[in-house]
Amino acid sequence: MTRGAPAATGPRTVLAYVIRRLFAVVMMLLVVTLTTFVIFFVLPKWAGQDPALLFVGKQTDAASIQGIREKLGLADPVLVQFWHFVQALFVGREYSSGTDVTQCAAPCFGYSFRTEQEVWPQLTDALPVTLSLAAGACLLWVVGGVAAGVVSALRRGTIWDRAAMSIALAGVSLPIYFTGLLSLAIFSFKLGWIEGEFASFSDDPAQWFQSLLLPWITLAFLYAAMYARLTRASMLEILGEDYIRTARAKGLTERVVISKHAMRSTWTPVLTLLGLDLGALLGGAILTESTYNLPGLGRLAVDAIAQKDLPVILGVTLIAAIFICVANLLVDMLYAVIDPRVRLG
Amino acid sequence: MNPQRSSARIRQVAGAAVVVAALMTTAACGGGGDKGKDGDKSGGKGAGFNAATGDKIANPSTKAGGTLKMISKQDLDSADPQRQYYGMAWDFSRFYSRQLVTYAAKPGNASSELVPDLAKANGKISNGGKTYTYELKDGIAWEDGTPITSKDIKYGISRIWAKEAITGGPTYLKQALDPKGEYQGPYKDKTSDGPKGIETPNDKTIVFNLATPNVDFEQMLAMPAGSPVKKEKDTGAKYQLKPFSSGPYKFESYAPKKSISLVRNDKWKKETDTVRAALPDKITVTINSNMEALDKLLIKGDYDVDMNGTGLTQSGRIEALKKHKDNVDNIQTSFTRYVDMTPVAPLNNVACRKAVVYATDFKSLQEVRGGEEAGGPLATTMLPTTIKGYDDYDPYGVKARGGKPDVAKAKEQLKACNQPDGFSTKISARSNNPGEKETAEALQQSLKAVGIKAEVEVIDGAESQSITGSPKVVKERKIGLIMTGWGPDFPTGQGFSQPLIDGRFIAPTGNYNGSETNDPAINKMFDDALKATDPDKAAEFYKQINHKTADIAAQMPFLYEKNFSWRSSRLTNVYSSTAYNGRYDYASLGVVK
Amino acid sequence: MTAPLHDTSPDADKAAPADVAADVAKKSVEGRSLRQIAWTRLKRDKLALAGGIVVVFLVLVALFAPLIVSLLGHPPDEFHQDKIDPLFGVAKGLDDSMFAGVSSDFLLGVEPGNGRDVFSRIVYGARISLLVAFLAAVVAVVLGTVLGIVAGYFGGWIDSVISRVMDMLLAFPQLLFIISLVSVLPGDLLGMTGSSVRIFILVMVIGFFGWPYIGRIVRGQTLSLREKEYVEAARSLGAGRAYILFKELLPNLVAPITVYTTLMIPTNILTEAALSFLNAGVKPPTASWGQMLSKAINTYESDPLFMIAPGLAIFITVLAFNLFGDGVRDALDPKGTR
């Protein structure tokens, strides 16, 4: 995001910067939502379909379709519908078709008329699953990736370096839906070590751990590769810089040089990448969740798309965009805290 | 840049290759860890292959108790009796909703018989087949203990008219009682006392006055749409979140798209109900949209039965048949798999439609769907074998050829249709319907042999009503062939064929008469069949309709669907019910504790 | 230093970004061009070369798919149901060996259900994979370069608008967005029918979400080049904006664009495969690797080969492009470290 030219820093500029960035985030969310809105409420119409039909069930008589249209306000212009949607996020909404009134409290992300359910609880139900997946995998890949990268950089050219970089190379080139199936074939089907479906942590911690173990590892394998390569590269670069040489010349032990000085600078690019990856992942690890049958946001989205459950699709897209934007913002803020060379502009 | 680095990277790649190769080898040759852990959680053994098919009952029992654990790839379309239209939902709703009459709790075709449920006896028919009168049983009660009255039944049925809120369910009763749609439904019309066609002279009597006679009227009352609803408990569209029970179980909790939990309704009295065995103490349903995972959980013994009841997936089938054959039933459903031929040119020409029939490799379509057993026997007409009026009519000699195509005849028909070199068209297939895309590809492949170029267009199942169900969109998108399947709403020719081939059922959306056939002769035969005084006379008309449909090749049926269903070792009292499209009769199931 | 307005001599200054060029000029006493240096470096990088050779091989496979298949396989859409056990839906004899379906006739076995030749479908799948990845990269490069240069050169509000659009696109939940879009678009579009529609959509959408990555780099480079002497000189000599943009700036951006294009292609291959895996790819019966993997979910336990074949195809292709891309980057990297 905006990493502009250095400028004088002060509390005022920081505040102005934050406000400017927040404004940009809000604008971005509006655009993402509007685009999704257009895809599902305008494109089908253009292709001759009626979105109201998606909500009525097997028997589609005129009265039912009319009822849905009134409730959802489908007869209004798209921008008006969009405005109602945005408004509902903050103040809730009432869907009414004369005799039948449905309340949807803020934050109202929409309402599925097929299941008579608000979208928000569906999102909050799926979020912990995605959070569990992302947190566990992230821990593994950061620890594994950074460690592998540091070892490779320090032991450049040795067998450790090569081994770590080999795995990294395989990692970035393997699609998760292939490694996922492969891991299931081996550990679940052939060896029978892992079985059963996802359970939430509060229900059954052991099952929670078991059902997430393979996804964590495969996902971490994919991401660790990038972190290892990144860490190795920036470490090598930093080790060649003057201030490290100075530190060494001052007689500091190698351990202190690495952990106090070199690592500190290595964290900057790692955290940047981490923020972006986590943001994207929290919005739904679509492929991982599909492959491993985890009921998180990604699966919710894929199922909703297949069932054309428009309010849910809209909700997940918005949540995903929020995560990405917030992650971006946090990364930029952290950037300034960690690396004094960076100024906010 | 130095050569050392390059060679280092070569070793990296070699390393990467070793990692992957190691994984592959394990996948391919890993020791069969499954061996020795065959025994599932129940510890028991299945009742035997096909133990619950035909007229057989697997593990007959009257022992009560335990929890019946169901799993399903999808949720009920609705739990509201007036809004349900999925077959599995009708089967499931037997747990908590009762009707005046219902299907007998008997295995196989005997299940199609209608027996009294809330009523003391089947309807008394008078007034030339236009009036049906029922007396209610004593002791029938809601889950709060209050008696179920004839007014509750009338109120429940009247909700069908409130289409602005009560969406989705069948409207047969509305059509039979108020074809002009004069009544506005209980929410809009708060003054009148419900539709004119229903009278409740007292709390124990209910009288229906039909606009015109309909031999299948009792079948319509047996649908969940004929269930009572207590007016004070009606929450409109949200009623489906917690329907008020008239049956042996009531809702403990319901999380749509996730889980359902039913517990015993202690106000229900066994002596008032001759149909429901009500053996388990509790019934749970878990929704899991991953069908492969679902099958694994069933086979593992975590669940007892698939509520959706459409059979095991390919991978589940392989494992179940190889290792647990005694838990599997090869069930004949009442589903016909067929292709609708739309009026998109040149399929508006009967010769071109016949060319498609002759060119189709039925055997190939059958094998893609799993062959004789997992797919089903070849079909030559639309009506399922269990419905009166079916016969083995085969005007195109499909069975005589063993399902193989007749290319010469197909080319002859193409000439007659002025398309000697073939033509281009599209086949639609629904993504959420297992095997439909693959079947469409097989059809595409066999049509190619005579020069008919068909493009497969995969659509999301949820959209089918607005795409293939809309004649306008079908025309715009030039969909000539619709790959689909159909099961009867109720087990008669009317319940199966009328929505598919009666021209007066063509609708702008949600249309099921995909061929858009509007043949006055066929329409008239439906009218005559409805006026018939008994089902056997009606069947004669359905037989003629069935032949006529085949002759004009409006639809191309190819399979009478069969599936492999899983029955856990814990299940008792299991049988396949023709009235519920071959599904197990859920209300009869019990479990070993 | 004279303004290199006449682009005839292989001058190092023109072939590379200015800072790179300055670097190289110091080091290479013989005055070789960066292109030459890069080529020498690349030739010495055995692994990048190996990757490059595999890439060339894959491109040839894709180009000559019909010929290869006619020699070694069966038409990719042809059914061979005699090879299939209909009840289990997979090749006969898989109980005894996972290679039961493999023979000299069917080099990689047969597809579950319909018995299509897996080898032929893998070969034809390469076409879709590479075609979509290349074309999408072209779309991304063209959009990214043009908009990046425009943003960097003109600055001001133009830069703001373009930068904001780039930020926005990078913040889009892309995969979600693409499957949504594909799921609502009709089968025919703008007069196109069949698989070409989906290929077109995939190319446009993947390319559209890819350009900001290139755009940012080009913008950054342009910003730094804008103030360089030779651009200033060209400007003072009265050269038109378009001339400066495309004659002076563009050649200097070739190196970074090349690097990012080669590194973008494997990403595009993975995206196409992922979309096909989620059933948002090309239409049946067109073969694609992602779709094969998606179908393999049903059968991977009884027929692991049908999962491994397309999985390996994706792995090898992506790995080859990554190696080659890495090599190109290293070769063009002036510092020669990393």
Automatic annotation (TrEMBL), chain A:
GO terms (BP aspect): transmembrane transport
Topology class, membrane: Multi-pass membrane protein
Gene3D superfamilies hit by this protein: MetI-like
The keyword Hydrolase is assigned to this record: no
Start and end residues of each ABC transmembrane type-1 domain: 127-335
GO cellular component terms listed in the entry, alphabetical order: plasma membrane
Keyword Membrane: yes
Subcellular location: Cell membrane
Keywords: Cell membrane, Membrane, Transmembrane, Transmembrane helix, Transport
TM spans (from-to): 22-43, 129-154, 166-188, 208-228, 270-292, 312-338
Family: Belongs to the binding-protein-dependent transport system permease family.
Name of the molecule in the record: ABC transporter permease
From TrEMBL, chain C:
Taxonomic path: Bacteria, Bacillati, Actinomycetota, Actinomycetes, Kitasatosporales
Listed InterPro entries: BP-dependent_transpt_permease (IPR050366), MetI-like (IPR000515), MetI-like_sf (IPR035906), OppC_N (IPR025966)
Entries under SUPFAM superfamilies matching the protein: MetI-like
Domain ABC transmembrane type-1 stretches: 126-325
Keyword hit for Transmembrane: yes
Protein name: Peptide ABC transporter permease
Membrane topology, record value: Multi-pass membrane protein
Organism of this sequence: Streptomyces finlayi
GO term, biological process aspect, one: transmembrane transport
Transmembrane segments: 47-69, 128-154, 166-185, 197-218, 305-324
